Each structure stands twice: as structure tokens, then as C-alpha cells.
From TrEMBL:
Species lineage: Bacteria, Pseudomonadati, Pseudomonadota, Gammaproteobacteria, Lysobacterales
Assigned keywords, A-Z: Acyltransferase, Transferase
Domain N-acetyltransferase: 5-162
Identification of the protein by name: GNAT family N-acetyltransferase
GO molecular function terms attached to this record: acyltransferase activity, transferring groups other than amino-acyl groups
Keyword field contains Ribonucleoprotein: no
InterPro entries: Acyl_CoA_acyltransferase, Bact_Acetyltransf, GNAT_dom
Pfam families associated with the record: Acetyltransf_1
Organism: Cognatiluteimonas weifangensis
CDD domains assigned to the protein according to its UniProt record, in alphabetical order: NAT_SF
Length: 162
């Protein structure tokens, strides 16, 4: 098993990679082609305003011949917040999860999740973590359950304004 990736906050220099991964995730999960300029602007807005979104990047240390190891971005997730009047606190929503194909099934998402979970537990007023998952994505559902998450019993409805 490869070493556990280290997790860091995303920075402005990650913009293009995060936008690329968001587009790849939309295609892989929903077969949606997103407008690259819109996605790039959306990621840039999230990176610029931590109240809007926070991105984290999982880094794998890869050896370079004759040099010290260099960090290679392996995956990401974005956090947003939702106020709950029922609980007088914030739910942290995990969104925009993407793990690069070469790093899948190697604990990258688990490392990202555990990092976010630890931060959530240490932050006063955070009442829990949530995410949504495609109904037929059984592999993702097993991963989330193995990390202690459970089906919240809700169906998701939307009305997009296109």
C-alpha cells in the first residue's frame, strides 16, 4: 500500500488543475460536458473566498531520479457550508471530489476525508459532514460507508436556472 498522502489547502496556483478535475468528474459521473471558462471562473471564485468554498489537495510524494521527492497532486475535494437552524450549527458539505486515475483505490479520498473530518470536529459549531452521491454509484457508497458515513434518507431535487 502506498504511503498516506499529505493534505494541504489548495492555492491559486492549483486553479487550472482543479478546474480540469471538476470537468473530468462531471464527465465521469454524469456524462456532462461543462463550459471550461465557467468552471475556471467558479473554481477561481471559490479559491478567492474561503467563506464560499475551501479546496484541499492530496499530495503523493514521488521520487525524482537524483533529487529529493516531489509532491504530485493525487486528488481533491471542496467544502461548502450549510447553516442548520434545527441544530444551530453548520453542516460541512463535501463536493467536487476527484481522484486522479493513477491514484484511485489507494486511500486518497480516505485521507482527504479524515483530514476534513478532523478539522470539522475541531471547529466549534460544525454539526457534521454531508455529501451527495449518484444513486447507482455503489463503489462510492461503499467507500463512504466504510468511513462511517450513512445514508441520510433524503432524495435530492433541483430546479436549475439555465
Amino acid at each position: 500500500m502506498p504511503p498516506t498522502p499529505r493534505i494541504r489547502d489548495a492555492v491559486a496556483a492549483d486553479l487550472d488543475l482543479l478546474a480540469q478535475w471538476a470537468q473530468a468528474m462531471a464527465w465521469e459521473t454524469e456524462h456532462k460536458r461543462l463550459d471550461p471558462a465557467t468552471v475556471r471562473a467558479g473554481v477561481a471564485a471559490g479559491l478567492a473566498d474561503p467563506a464560499r468554498a475551501r479546496y484541499f489537495v492530496a499530495m503523493h510524494d514521488a521520487p525524482l531520479a537524483g533529487h529529493e521527492s516531489v509532491g504530485v497532486a493525487a486528488g481533491t475535494l471542496m467544502l461548502t457550508r450549510e447553516w442548520s437552524d434545527w441544530r444551530n450549527g453548520d453542516w460541512w458539505w463535501i463536493q467536487s471530489v476527484y481522484v486522479a486515475p493513477d491514484y484511485r483505490r489507494q486511500g486518497v479520498f480516505a485521507a482527504l476525508y479524515r483530514h476534513v473530518e478532523a478539522q470539522a470536529r475541531a471547529t466549534p459549531g460544525v454539526v457534521g459532514l454531508r455529501l451527495y452521491v449518484e444513486r447507482h454509484n455503489a463503489a462510492a457508497q461503499r467507500t463512504y460507508a466504510a468511513l462511517g458515513m450513512r445514508d441520510a434518507g433524503y432524495a435530492l431535487y433541483e430546479q436549475p436556472f439555465e
